[in-house]
Design a protein that fits this description.
about 20% helix, about 325 residues, single chain, 13 strands, 7 helices
Length: about 325
């Protein structure tokens, strides 16, 4: 279950990062409002038993010991909407290596020696002008015969500039943008020993995003309102043969001062429904609800970017 939660954590936090944080209101601080009631306290009728969820958690709790972070073997990774280099000897690489035990280091060596590691890269086209669209593609992957950890991540985003009004004399500007994106990520462990040790075999995430932002800039301040919505799917295959999968929906609204994001995973397993709602409000602890019950965000949300999860939208 933490595998699923970690994905929702990263998705929600990435969306929230679109705005600066200094407070909170239910409508994101004015402007756009949420279009969906995520009903965090709703419990599905066929909810998976609590003991099953605990068993899943126990089986995958040590994933980070065996499966290396991207920073351990990629020299450039996708970080939100950009590419970030990772240097040998850097703190981030050292921290990624320090997480691994002996089995994890052996698995890392297998990845480095067997896989073609295709570092993250970014391509852009289009221009910033009224009526034009600017596109960006981010990709990173591992591949090759016998590669024990196969990764494919592809993010396509587009911004269409409906309005660009600039008054140089008054030092003001007004921009209205429409946003869209298609993001996909798959990760599969093909080393059976590591599958058994980590409790996980694979994960696949697909997400389609759309949104709008309205920005006004003056000589002394900037005001902004925005909303981003997304729909997709998540599927996680566990080492025991079970699969947890289902639809994913999310939304973030905000202004230049505050933001709030909500993510809903409506999953199914062989033991029943697994419904997760994740809420992030500006300058407040995250809230996580599992089958209608609020759970400890420090335990479930603090794990950050688990290796098989989503690494940015």
């Amino acid at each position: 279950m933490k595998l699923l939660i970690s994905s929702l954590v990263v998705l929600s936090a990435t969306l929230s990062a679109c705005t600066d944080d200094s407070g909170s209101k239910k409508d994101g601080g004015g402007g756009y409002v949420f279009t969906q009631d995520y009903q965090p306290n709703y419990k599905p009728q066929n909810a998976a038993p609590a003991q099953y969820l605990k068993d899943v958690l126990i089986s995958i709790k040590d994933t980070n010991l065996y499966v290396p972070d991207d920073a351990a073997f990629f020299d450039a990774i996708i970080d939100g909407s950009d590419v970030r280099p990772i240097w040998d000897g850097s703190q981030e690489r050292q921290e990624a290596l320090q997480k691994l035990n002996g089995e994890g280091l052996r698995f890392l060596n297998d990845i480095r020696t067997t896989c073609a590691i295709n570092n993250a890269k970014k391509t852009e086209s289009g221009e910033v002008r009224q009526g034009a669209t600017k596109s960006q593609t981010l990709t990173m992957s591992t591949s090759g015969m016998g590669c024990p950890f196969v990764i494919s991540k592809n993010d396509l985003s587009e911004v269409t500039y409906d309005t660009i009004e600039v008054n140089q004399a008054a030092q003001t500007a007004h921009v209205v943008m429409r946003l869209s994106g298609v993001n996909s990520e798959t990760r599969e462990i093909r080393n059976q020993r590591v599958v058994d040790l980590s409790g996980t075999r694979s994960m696949a995430v697909s997400l389609r995003l759309s949104g709008k932002a309205d920005v006004t800039q003056t000589a002394s301040q900037q005001t902004m309102k925005m909303r981003i919505q997304g729909n997709g799917t998540i599927s996680v295959a566990l080492a025991n043969g079970d699969t947890i999968s289902g639809p994913l929906s999310m939304e973030v609204v905000g202004t230049e001062q505050v933001s709030e994001s909500r993510v809903l995973f409506d999953g199914q397993s062989s033991h029943g429904a697994i419904r997760v709602v994740f809420i992030v409000r500006s300058n407040q602890p995250p809230e996580i609800y599992l089958n209608g019950e609020k759970v400890d965000a420090a335990e479930w949300g603090g794990i950050g970017k688990m290796n098989l999860g989503v690494h940015g939208i």
